[in-house]
Amino acid sequence: MKIQKLDVVVAILAGITCLGLLVNIPVWALFIGWAWYFALGATPDVLKQAIPALLIGYILAAISIVVYAASGFQILAMIIAVAVTVFILMMSLKLDIFSCSLASFNAYSCLFAGYYAGNFPKMEQASVLDLNNVGVAVLWIAFANILGLFCGWLSVSIGTAGQKNND
Q1: Sequence-separated (6 or more) residues with CB below 8 Å from residue 154
Q2: Which end of the chain has a smaller Cβ tally under 10 Å, C or N?
Q3: Which sequence spans correspond to the domains of the chain?
Q4: Which pTM value belongs to this model?
Q5: Average pLDDT over residues 63-69
Q6: Rounded to an integer, what distance in angstroms lies between the CA atom of residue 152 and that of residue 135?
Q7: Alpha-carbon gap, residue 31 to 13, rounded angstroms
């Protein structure tokens, strides 16, 4: 097994990203975005594929969370909200701009994970729907995913600089 420059660069950058914990950046969400970059081909085009798709995933998950809160946290409301929003997500995948299913579905689940775990800077609850915190969670966790995509791009850019191919 040969250690390549990319292996070392990824490891060093991964360690550096842990500094995000100092300002409550959910590093787990950053690593998910980074994994998307590699899973989707590790080219700059991944950014154009993943970012629009992750945004629709976040928006639809936020709608589900707000509907659930509006219902007084009734499980049937969550079931219906998730079914409807995931159906919309499935339809959005048919459009080229939102067709990156990995980013879209993962973003949907990242919001549920991050919001309910409280992995974002919380604001005072303004209403029973907690719209402020849902909005902050969307921005904060999506930012971490997007930062992860850029970490993927940066690691490949640095880790393969000077090479003739990306083997």
Answers
A1: 13
A2: N
A3: 5-159
A4: 0.92
A5: 96
A6: 26
A7: 11
